TrEMBL record:
Organism classification: Bacteria, Pseudomonadati, Pseudomonadota, Betaproteobacteria, Burkholderiales
Organism whose genome encodes this protein: Paraburkholderia edwinii
Origin superkingdom: Bacteria
Family annotation (InterPro entries): Glyco_hydro_71, TAT_signal
Record flagged with keyword Signal: yes
Region forming the signal peptide: 1-25
Keyword Protease: no
Protein's name according to its UniProt entry: Glycoside hydrolase family 71 protein
Amino acid sequence: MERRRLLEAAAAASLAALPGGHALAAAAARQQPAAPVSRKYVFAHYMVAWPRGGPHAVLADYVAEIRDAIARGIDGFALNCGGWHVSEPQYKQRALLLYEAAKSFSGRFKLFVSVDGNAQNELDDIVATTRGLDAQLMQDGKPVLSAYALGGRDLARCEALIRQARQLNVWFMPHFSPSRGEAVIGPEQAAEIAKRAEFADGYFFFGAAALPDALARSIRLLAVALKRDRKAFMAPVTPYYRGLASGTNYRAFETNGFNGMADEWQAAIDADVDWVQIVTWNDWAESTYVAPIGSTSGALVYNERFGILLNHTGYLDASRYFIDWFKSGVKPAIHRDELFYFYRLHPVGLQTNLIDAISSRAAFPPRSTGRLTSYIHVTAFVTQDATLQVTCGSSRWELPLQAGVNEAAFPWTPGRPRFVLVRNGQTVMQKVGEETITRNDYSGAFNYFSGSMKG
């Protein structure tokens, strides 16, 4: 499947279509290389507030999480800390446990702090505490430090914190929002970000809360602007986003199974960004997690307020193809058949959901920029041409697959999906999905479930 060629053409068209886009598109051809980084890395955004092992996670719990990440090709965690020692001391305590856990992997897994909220008031202690630790990520002989929403909406404070980080002699790659907000990154916002990052070493784009095509376009625009100013760039890839119904952030962004995440990976590869950060490893509240949850179906993790979390490991495992591509710069050969499936467990349609919400509050849909959809999505990596058969309830579909990466969608229907891969008249592999699609069980809470079968 010529995915890369098609997306490159789409990127060029989207650049040209935007105000000022022709200039950025032309700049892409003559841009200078960014300030060099030591190597291509893939990190995952780790919410120190919510370890998978629970509020009382111990060293062995963190070791297990790191082992899971290494097995999927992840090089380290960006440790999101919303506090540190003075405001919320558990952040510092947990961060030090994570550094101790990473130390046991003999340099194979690196960490750096991403300061958020009140932690931005304690840069001095964060840097002093982590600078000499074995697992601390170093760049140009300096400890790497990142940030989320640096300075909040206060541009002057953001600039002051960048100057403070410079004085602390760290290699600083913060995230901050452009002055008009971050919903859409256009050429003006990309240029503003590059200018404001003048005294930082690079920029981290958090992304996540937007549709995948907007995120992919933002990655490409930012890559051009930051490379032009010789700044390193850490781009995001996100599996899915849906805030909690019980909070103030009840919104969702449709990703059509793995398709959206694949688009973001492709944008990062095409734009030749320096580093990628998977957003996130374990944000249970916004459903952006990719961490294995200890179940192939669903589980309670950390706190009951997050509800039953559905398995998202399919997003992580399907990403391995793109992780290898990004790090090596070479499109990987496919040596075994792998199929990943993604679907919601209940109907998604505004009229249906509002009617059902009369009797069940859980049926009330999150607000969304684009329409949420009801499909069974499949991403298949196949070594040779084959046929995919999908059965669910009384419905059955058959689709030819070409050698390479294939993406397909089948109409949502109640039942338990069954997937069969056939080649030359012989069944290569088959599996029944772990979760059942129903008409009226909204316990899935508009989240996606993922699963896989491998040859």
